[in-house]
Amino acid sequence: MIVDALTQADLPRCAELEAGIFAGESPWPLSGFVAELRAPHNRYFAVRTAAGEPVAGYAGISVLGPEGGRECEIHTIAVDPDFLGRRFGWALLEAMLAVADAERAPVFLEVRTDNRPAIDLYERSGFVVVGTRRNYYQPSGADAYTMMRPAGGTSDQEERP
């Protein structure tokens, strides 16, 4: 497995994966990926089975705010269903958390309340639920948890003896 920077050439594959993975939740079109990749405050990653292979998953994070007061927001993380269970999602998350850690920034994300595998992954990486967004995902109306990982990855719970 290789994690590297997502490129313009990868975007049609990302849009294809997005349409399948998030079919019921207004998947991003190709133009959405193009805009996200162009934004200077975003970092997007691809995971591949080997160098030069097509994208098997992708993820993106924004770095927001002034230097010394940054926050990060995970925009998306998705893995081709054919590659689930191979730790590709974990590898993408680790790449994004390295960006946040370099900025000494907390990280926020939204996740469907019924997506237990993703919630477990985030909790193992130091995220905690800080709120619920009712009807967040459209058109399904599914709820989302807002989760947060403090700067450096340590929650108050983890700091207690």
- How many separate domains? 1
Q: Specify Rg, calculated over alpha carbons.
A: 15 Å
Strand content is: 25-35%
Q: From the 3D coordinates, which CATH architecture would you assign?
A: 3-Layer(aba) Sandwich
Helix fraction bin: 25-40%
Structural class: alpha+beta
State the CATH superfamily name: Gcn5-related N-acetyltransferase (GNAT)
**Helical run tally:** 5
Major pleated sheet: 7 strands, mixed
Q: What order do the SSEs take from the amino end to the carboxyl end, as H and E?
A: EHHEEEHEHEEH
Question: Which stretches of 5+ consecutive residues score pLDDT under 50?
Answer: 155-161
Keywords: Acyltransferase, Cytoplasm, Transferase
Pfam families: Acetyltransf_1
Family: Belongs to the acetyltransferase family. RimI subfamily.
Domain N-acetyltransferase: 1-152
Briefly summarize what is shown:
The protein is 30% helix and 29% strand. With 161 residues, the chain is an alpha+beta fold.
Describe what this molecule looks like in 3D:
InterPro entries: AcTrfase_RimI/Ard1, Acyl_CoA_acyltransferase, GNAT_dom, YpeA/RimI_acetyltransf. Residues 1-152 form the N-acetyltransferase domain. With 161 residues, this protein is of the alpha+beta class. The chain has one domain (2-159): 3-Layer(aba) Sandwich (Aminopeptidase). The chain is built from five helices and seven strands. The protein has helices spanning 11-21, 30-38, 88-103, 116-124, 156-159; strands at residues 2-5, 42-48, 57-64, 71-79, 107-112, 128-133, 144-149. A seven-stranded mixed β-sheet has the order 1-2-3-4-5-7-6, with helices on both faces. Strand 2 (42-48) and strand 3 (57-64) form a beta hairpin. The radius of gyration is 15 Å and the shape is globular. Residues 155-161 have low confidence and may be disordered.
